Amino acid sequence: MLIRNHFLVLTVLLSGFCGLGAAAQNQPADTSLAATQPAPARQQQLRRMLEHDCGSCHGLRLTGGLGPAIHAEAMQQLPQAAIAATIFHGRPGTPMPAWKSMISEAEADWLAAYMQRPSATKPALVSQDPRP
Ligand code: HEC
């Protein structure tokens, strides 16, 4: 009961903060994603990781570098589960590292879905956020 209420509050908060209200209605996938939403502070950490750690190989704007482009348009060509598995397990034999010591499988799922979301529905780059 408590968990369900918490989940509802989170969903409402996220819809408001991320301006997802309209987008979510067009994208049922976002609704199932909500079942594994990390806490807001953790989402911030994951976004920061995507920008800084992933960006070091995939480019600051994720348009490609040592690794291929992993921006939203590229990620929408791949199944969410495949992206999550690549993040969690890495790509053995390539420089793409496994992130399972840093994040949970649920967080990899969330990150994969987040990466697929159109840029317009996302907050500004983390590096532009004020530092705590
Ligand atoms: C040390 C460099 C490096 C880092 C750091 C890195 N990657 Fe990669 N990544 C790669 C390389 C190289 C590939 C291509 C692997 C291959 O050849 O299959 C790749 C592939 C991928 C793919 C598959 C793309 C596709 O088109 O199939 C995804 C998704 C991905 N990385 C996401 C991430 C995420 C998310 C992070 C941060 C959590 C990250 N990567 C951090 C080097 C890196």
Automatic annotation (TrEMBL):
Entry keyword annotation includes Coiled coil: no
InterPro entries, per the entry: Cyt_c-like_dom, Cyt_c-like_dom_sf
A Pfam short name: Cytochrome_CBB3
UniProt keyword Heme present: yes
Cytochrome c domain location: 38-119
Record keywords, A-Z: Heme, Iron, Metal-binding, Signal
Gene Ontology MF: a single term: electron transfer activity
Signal peptide region: 1-24
Protein's UniProt name: Cytochrome c55X
